[in-house]
Amino acid sequence: MPKEVAAGERRVALVPSVVSKLTEGGFDVVVEAGAGAEAGYPDAQYGEAGAKTVTAAELFGGADGVLKVREPGQGAGGDELEQMREGAVLIGFLQPLTNTDLVKRLVDRRITSFGMEVIPRTTRAQSMDALSSQAVAAGYRGTLAAAESLGKFFPMLITAAGTAAPARVLVLGAGVAGLQAIATARRLGAVVEAYDVRPAVKEEVESLGAKFVQIEVKQEGEGSGSGEYAKELPEETQRKQRELLADRVARADCVITTAAVPGRPAPKLVTEDMVSAMQPGSVIVDLAAETGGNCDLTEPDQIVERHGVTIDGRLNLPSRMPYHASLLYANNVANLLTHLAPEGQLNLDFEDEITAGACITHEGRIVNERVRETIEGAVSA
Ligand code: NAD
Fold first, then answer.
1. Topology of the domain covering 16-118+341-372
2. Which of 138, 162, 167, 207 could lock 317 by a disulfide, CB 3.0 to 4.6 Å apart?
3. Could you give the CA distance from residue 169 to residue 283 in angstroms, rounded to a whole number?
4. In the chain, what is the straight-line distance between the N-terminal and C-terminal CA atoms, in Å?
């Protein structure tokens, strides 16, 4: 497990408690010196858990498998991918559907690579679902960011010096991150409303103590009422959706947006007109900034003020709470690794849907079907 090299990345792929499980399970674990320091895990703790501390060059040159959070980059010992042994295993968030160059290099270097984001999201693979574990961290951290920017208390406070009304929080998109945002805002005492294009989440929203905003924009076959994932809505339906959301947004002190459609740009739910109708001092935290943002005025990785409203589009919120984000991620990675290599011995069964779905490249070819189609499409276009 090397130190992450992506700018601003403080998470790591293994934490000491998970190292113990892996060493007990038959793996030899080596960790780059200082790798976990920024996440709150000093080298000594990895040592106590049974890992050996090495330099980056020793690690990449010697390991049969490299566990990362983000894609390989330029590390202390040079290009990480170039240093890896041919045929070695690489696991991480590798963005295989958009990072065509990386996929080609993984093929050329004959790396057996697994993408955490392409693990099938089935019940069997739930313990490996890093999209969900990191969305939990993002939803929580995003809500704290909203509370910090807002000049109001979240809870109702009755004091000798006067009474403060509770903050009104609107959460748009009630998937994993949105539900955690709702739960966090509720714990802080805010009055919370939430909306999702999938009416199936109404019960979950209500069980967290929030009100579900019911707006009828669904047309047949759109917006996924029954399936698990939302589909992109036609532009006319999106326009209607924005109209119906406008007065909810105007009345909210904080809007936390998390709406996403897998593989597509984030739906635009909050327009400039809607922002300008909000009270000055209000806050929007846009957790969809990574895929373009749910608000028209979001600037990825920036906090900006527009029409008196703070719009927070900071990226990679899980890295802002690296201790627990790393712990959850490490469990996801270790569960995948143990699935691929029971008792520490790699044993790949491509008939298995988790292995076949998560595998990006193996022995110089692309395994994941969607990745192969995307890359072939990009080459022929
Ligand atoms: P996501 O990050 O892709 O999307 C977040 C939310 O945005 C979703 O709830 C989606 O419905 C919503 N959304 C999309 N377009 C919208 C629009 N125009 N307006 C309002 N909302 C919109 O989703 P996610 O959080 O990664 O997962 C979504 C759901 O998938 C989960 O809530 C869960 O039910 C299911 N899931 C299942 C498993 C499993 O079975 N192992 C694992 C993870 C997630």
1. Rossmann fold (3.40.50)
2. 138
3. 9
4. 37
- Name the residue ranges covered by the structural domains of the chain: 16-118+341-372, 135-320
Given a cut of 70, whether residue 368 has pLDDT beyond it is yes
- Quote the CA–CA distance of 116 and 138 in Å, as a whole number: 17
Average pLDDT, the chain: 94
Catalytic residue among 229, 279, 301, 302: 229
Phi-psi region of 51 (alpha: psi -120 to 50; beta: other; left: phi over 0): beta
Residue 226's pLDDT band (cuts 50, 70, 90):
very low
Contact 302, 314 (CB under 8 A): yes
Told to judge if 229 belongs to the known catalytic residues of this protein, a careful annotator would answer: yes
Q: What is the CATH number of domain 135-320?
A: 3.40.50.720
Ligand 1 center to residue 198 CA distance, Å?
8
Given a contact cutoff of 8 angstroms between Cβ atoms, the answer to whether 56 and 4 are in contact is: no
pLDDT reported for residue 225: 46
Token representation of residue 260 = 């996403």
Q: How far is CA 105 from the centre of its chain?
A: 24
Task: Confirm whether 16-118+341-372 and 135-320 share one CATH topology.
Answer: yes
Mean pLDDT of 61-66: 97
Residue 110, token pair as written in the block: 């004959």
Which run of H or E residues covers position 162? strand 162-164
Q: Specify the residue with its C-alpha closest to ligand 1, atom 13.
A: 259
Q: Encode pLDDT of 151-198 as tens digits.
A: 999 999 999 999 999 999 999 999 999 999 999 999 999 999 999 999
Look at residue 377 in the predicted model and tell me its pLDDT: 79
Residues with CB under 6 A from ligand 1: 121-123, 126, 129, 131-132, 135, 172-178, 195-198, 228-230, 233, 258-262, 267, 269
Q: Which amino acid is at 133?
A: S
- Which atom of ligand 1 is nearest to 233's Cα? 18
Please state, in angstroms and rounded to a whole number, the distance separating the CA atoms of residues 66 and 57: 12
Asked if pLDDT for residue 211 goes beyond 60, the answer is: yes
Count how many Cα atoms sit within 13 Å of the Cα of residue 329 in the half-sphere of its side chain: 31
Residue pLDDT, tens place only, 236-250: 888 888 888 999 999
